[in-house]
Write a structure and sequence with these properties.
The chain is of the alpha+beta class. It contains 17 helices and 46 strands.
Length: 869
């Protein structure tokens, strides 16, 4: 039986100029069969075949055929699933090698080419590349069988688990290298990923094969040094005469020779370094420009030069805190890039297409650009998910988004003593490290998600969750790879108990699932939150309307609210109950009564509350006096339509919560913290690379309109710094702005701060509002409030929306079908004017633009104007 190679037969990072890769994307079919009912391709012609897409899954094919939708959980593990495709490709010629490349098949599979078994696999995370040059015959058929997992999971396996988890089922999934998303009943019930979820291609290599390549950049003072190592094999008998590495980019063009060392089996190793004086540095986008350099190899073969494209890299210094060596299991992850502390804020990444696992063209870039616009500078790929594509990794480098990469393990007691499992893990780890090595965006490698926590919360020793796999094997492989990133054995980890937030890295759900008051975000002394702030975030009304159209069963509004709401397995509550708790706490309303009496009002307030809680919490953590160095929201994007954990909905559109977070996480941000008897403090962060010279304007209001105090102060913040100002210090007198002393009735009910560019005319940089005696929820008529909007056309389909209000307008929502507001769900102070850019996008067709507010009855329509002022 064919052996499964331990590593790819070619470097996925290197593309030689003589390579010819043909993607097999058209003409695929899929069919179900009873387990082992069809033993070979000769037995499958009578099956019921459906069109399929590759990359793609069984669930995707069924959905396209009208047989399944997101959120439905058919038991795909009960059947064998056969995929087949016909393609044209000639046998290998002299000096050629032809590989069939299976970049990822979920999960236990065998593949046949022209009736011959060519490979088998047990992991969805390891590519298989098979030399098929002798088997090709012009017209060819490839057949892949994904075996039914259910019978395999029912088999008795050893060693027995020392603990059990209800996060994913069944328990024997711990033996199988497959994604847990789709198999986690509480938050990702399915469908499971089955099928060729990554590209299938034919790679024809001529003259030269690059079989391994590693690029490792580093900084020596201000000089960038790139070390390149790998191996090549001549296919035509002509051994390489010489080789060079070239690096080009914002620092200039530089090259150096590569030393060649012949090895056995007709191969040649190469190694060398190229130096880049005064190298432009790579930064997270919040702190500077993510400068990248292109890498090429020039290989000389008998007087002819072959160019090998080796991707891009960046030069940056990565450290963790002030201790040397860093101790993240005690101090947390205090990430520093080029010597500058970076408050790391972002979210957990989930597959963009959890059903078909084939995101639409352009969607990865669009989503990552949304991440960047949201002020996020780090993403975590959790161990419940899957390794991402080269496109994703390239875009993180390009857009300046740091990457926390888990190995794909979560919650289970994994059987590393099992020889087959161990072999799968070794192949998987090699593949993952090859893909992410040398990338400037990579900051953290983590052994798993919640394995140590799972053991500890069951009353066991947390060290049982580390063991050989996460305490020895994986860290040794990371060290051997010489990848410049820190390794964490588990998330969370550190301290006597791994989930205590004051030590190491913790999952913090005090504010959130554990229903703690907002003050707990400070009391908990969070060092770094590897997961946090899981809320059932309600999407906007356009998204809910689309749900009713896409899934008629959800036309009942009550059903729409509940769609996609996560829950912990076995709990008698879900995360909508969590949201309702904070709705009552912050807005002083009875959620159940409000839902029954006025469902639309309930939704409006529900959309606001989770974003406001998130923004308030991040403001607490981001201030200079906090021990917290970063936090990751659970999670970025919903897997299903509805009110899931995502701050983006299932289509990738921002929910209201996203806009609250965007303002809190911006590179230049303004926010306030109520310190009780210590007064209200304004905080300004300037993460960027330039000095911030601005004016901080304060206004106090009573009754939604009456000005009772106004002042301004000039601020100058150096690059990568923060400052704080006592609001009453700006005002120049005591006014009990937070109504903490309560010597009498509150003198003001709204504190408004604006950060303005210095000079005339001044433009708005950032804006913050605090309501010391409660949010203004009393509904006013549009005429009394005076909220108005004027819409002016702009280039490229954009539009400018000019907003103004006579009285304070709280929680202004912009409803613009076919247009996506750059800012939304904002508060306007009395007499304010604000301009919001509207870009093509969003849901629905372009039409009128309507404005609502949490303290206004009904809506007003923005007036179209012929030209901008």
């Amino acid at each position: 039986m064919p052996a499964w190679p331990e590593r790819p037969a070619w470097s996925t990072r290197a593309v030689a100029g003589t390579d010819d890769r043909v993607l097999l994307r058209k003409g695929w079919l899929v069919a179900a069969a009873e387990p082992d009912a069809a033993a070979s391709p000769q037995d499958i012609d009578s099956l019921n075949w459906l069109p399929a897409s590759v990359p793609g899954t069984v669930a995707g094919a069924l959905a396209n055929a009208g047989g399944g939708h997101a959120g439905e959980t058919p038991d795909l593990d009960a059947h064998d699933w056969w995929f087949r495709v016909k393609f044209d490709s000639e046998p290998a010629q002299l000096g050629e090698q032809v590989l069939l490349c299976l970049d990822g098949i979920a999960t236990v599979f065998d593949a046949h080419l022209n009736g011959e078994l060519i490979c088998q696999g047990r992991s969805m995370f390891v590519p298989v590349n098979v030399d098929v040059g002798r088997l090709l015959r012009g017209e060819n058929e490839l057949v892949i069988r994904c075996r039914a997992l259910a019978p395999l999971l029912e088999q008795s396996r050893r060693p027995r688990a020392r603990w059990r988890t209800r996060v994913a089922t069944p328990a024997n999934l711990r033996f199988v290298r497959t994604m847990l998303l789709g198999r986690a009943p509480g938050f990702a019930p399915g469908p499971a990923t089955v099928g060729p979820w990554r590209e299938v291609s034919v790679l024809r290599r001529r003259d030269l094969a690059v079989e391994a390549l590693a690029v490792r950049p580093r900084l020596v003072d201000d000089t960038g040094v790139l070390r390149v190592t790998g191996s090549i094999r001549a296919l035509s008998g002509r051994e390489p005469d010489a080789a060079r590495v070239l690096i080009t980019g914002p620092s200039g063009d530089f090259s150096a020779p590569l030393a060649l060392h012949p090895i056995e089996a007709a191969g040649t190793r190469f190694a060398g370094e190229v130096s880049v004086p005064d190298a432009a540095r790579w930064w997270p986008h919040t702190h500077g420009e993510p400068a990248l350099h292109d890498i090429k190899l020039l290989i000389e073969l008998a007087g002819e030069s072959v160019t090998v494209r080796a991707g891009r890299t960046g030069f940056r210094e990565l450290t963790f805190g002030s201790s040397n060596p860093a101790q993240p299991e005690h101090d947390g992850l205090d990430i520093r890039v080029n010597g500058v502390p970076v408050f790391a804020r972002g979210a957990l990444w989930t597959p963009l297409d959890p059903v078909g696992m084939a995101p639409a063209e352009g969607s990865v870039r669009r989503t990552l650009e949304t991440v960047r616009e949201g002020g996020m500078n780090i993403l975590r790929i959790p161990g419940t998910g899957c390794y991402e594509t080269r496109e994703f990794l390239d875009l993180c480098d390009e857009l300046g988004i740091l990457l926390w990469q888990d190995f794909m393990f979560a919650n289970f007691d994994y059987p590393i003593a099992d020889p087959d499992f161990r072999a799968d893990v070794l192949a998987e780890a090699r593949t993952a490290l090859e893909a992410i090595g040398g990338r400037p965006s990579l900051a953290v490698l983590c052994g798993n998600s919640e394995v140590e926590q799972q053991a500890a919360m069951l009353g066991l020793d947390a060290d049982l969750g580390r063991g050989e796999l996460f305490g020895e094997l994986l860290p040794e492989m990371v060290a051997e790879s010489q990848i410049d990133a820190t390794y964490l054995p588990s998330a969370p980890c550190g301290g006597m108990l791994p989930f205590r937030p004051a030590c190491g890295v913790a999952n913090y759900f005090g504010v959130g699932g554990y229903l703690r008051p907002l003050e707990d975000a400070r009391r908990a002394q969070v060092r770094f939150a590897s997961e946090c702030l899981a809320f059932s975030n309600v999407p906007d009304e356009e998204a809910i309307a689309a749900m009713a159209t896409d899934a008629p069963a959800l036309q009942d509004p009550a059903g729409s609210w509940k769609a996609g709401v996560p829950r912990d397995v076995g709990a008698d509550w879900d995360f909508e109950d969590v949201r309702d708790h904070y709705l009552q706490m912050l807005f002083s309303v009875d959620p159940g009564a409000l839902r029954e009496a006025d469902s639309q009002r309930y939704l409006e307030l529900s959309r606001a509350v989770t974003g406001e809680v998130m923004a308030e919490t991040f403001g607490e953590w981001r201030r200079a006096g906090s021990p917290c160095a970063g936090a990751l929201v659970l999670w970025l994007k919903d897997l299903l339509p509805g009110a899931g954990w995502g701050v983006l909905d299932d289509r990738g559109d921002p929910k209201p919560a996203f806009h609250h977070l965007r303002r809190a996480l911006a590179p230049v941000a303004l926010w306030t913290v109520d310190e009780g008897l210590g007064g209200v403090v304004a905080h300004v962060a300037n993460d960027g690379p330039s000095t911030l010279a601005a004016d901080l304007h304060l206004a106090l209001y009573r009754g939604g309109e009456q000005s009772v105090g106004e002042a301004q102060t000039a601020i100058d913040l150096s690059a990568h710094s923060q400052g704080e100002w006592d609001v009453e210090g700006i005002l120049g007198r005591f006014a009990d702005v937070g109504w903490a002393y309560r010597f009498g009735p509150p003198a003001q009910d709204a504190i408004v701060l604006r950060l303005l560019t210095r000079g005339h005319p001044a433009s708005l940089i950032a804006h913050a509002v605090r309501f010391p005696v409660g949010r203004p929820l009393a509904l006013e008529t549009p005429g009394d409030l005076g909220l108005e909007g004027s819409l002016f056309p702009g280039p490229d389909g954009n539009a400018e929306l000019h907003l103004r209000t006579r009285r304070l307008a709280y929680g202004v929502g912009i409803h613009a079908g076919g247009l996506e507001p750059q800012d939304n769900w904002l508060t306007l102070e009395p007499g304010a004017q604000r301009t919001v850019l509207l870009r093509p996008g969003g849901r629905g067709e372009a039409g009128s633009v309507e404005l609502g507010a949490l303290n206004m009855q009904g809506r007003v329509t923005a007036q179209f104007r012929a030209s901008a002022k």
